[in-house]
Structures are given as C-alpha cells and as structure tokens.
C-alpha cells in the first residue's frame, strides 16, 4: 500500500510515518525519523504483524508491504505522515484479500 512521504516543501522533512488498521489506536507499523534523516529512521512493526510487514523507502513509491498476506489482514488502513513544519497528512486504503489465504 503506497504512502506519499514527499515533504510538501524543500525545507521540510518527514519525522514520523504511522500505519493504523481499522479503528485501532496503536499503530501496526511505525517509521521514526525524529532523530535524523529518514534514510536512517527506525522501523517498528507491531507484534501482530511481526516479520510479515515492512515499509520500503528505496522504491519510487514507498509503501507498506504485508507478505504473506492473510485473510485477517483485510480491512481499512491509514497512513499518517508527520512533518517537522508542515501539517500532518493521512491516506486511507482498503485492502481486500481474494482467493486462498
């Protein structure tokens, strides 16, 4: 699931990327760049998804990947991007799991 993390202006930077599922209050994935550049950010997957989830910064359209995907992964997801200066942006996605899982 893609998440646009491009800063709105050249003098701004991403500080946090938080992924939520449904109405959960605790993120399922956190990318923390508050202490340095995003390339050296710390990644924190939830215990729920563990090693099945990662956020790839090194592709044209960074995004969250769940692999292997399971039926229980189906649902609404929200990517919240916090910047140092700019307002927070959020993107919503619906993941549908089709076929065997």
TrEMBL record:
Designated name of the protein: Ig-like domain-containing protein
Highest taxon, organism lineage: Eukaryota
Matches recorded under InterPro entries: Ig-like_dom, Ig-like_dom_sf, Ig-like_fold
Signal peptide limits: none
PANTHER family with a match to the protein in the record: OBSCURIN, SIDESTEP PROTEIN
Organism: Caerostris darwini
Domain Ig-like intervals: 1-90
PROSITE patterns: IG_LIKE (PS50835)
């Amino acid at each position: 699931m893609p998440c646009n993390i491009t800063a709105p202006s050249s003098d701004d930077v991403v500080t946090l990327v938080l992924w939520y599922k449904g109405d959960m209050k605790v993120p399922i994935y956190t990318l923390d760049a508050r202490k340095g550049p995003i390339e050296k950010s710390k990644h924190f997957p939830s215990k729920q998804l563990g090693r099945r989830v990662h956020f790839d910064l090194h592709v044209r359209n960074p995004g969250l990947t769940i692999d292997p995907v399971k039926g229980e992964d189906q649902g609404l997801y929200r990517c919240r991007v916090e910047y140092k200066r700019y307002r927070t942006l959020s993107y919503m996605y619906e993941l549908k799991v089709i076929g065997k899982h």
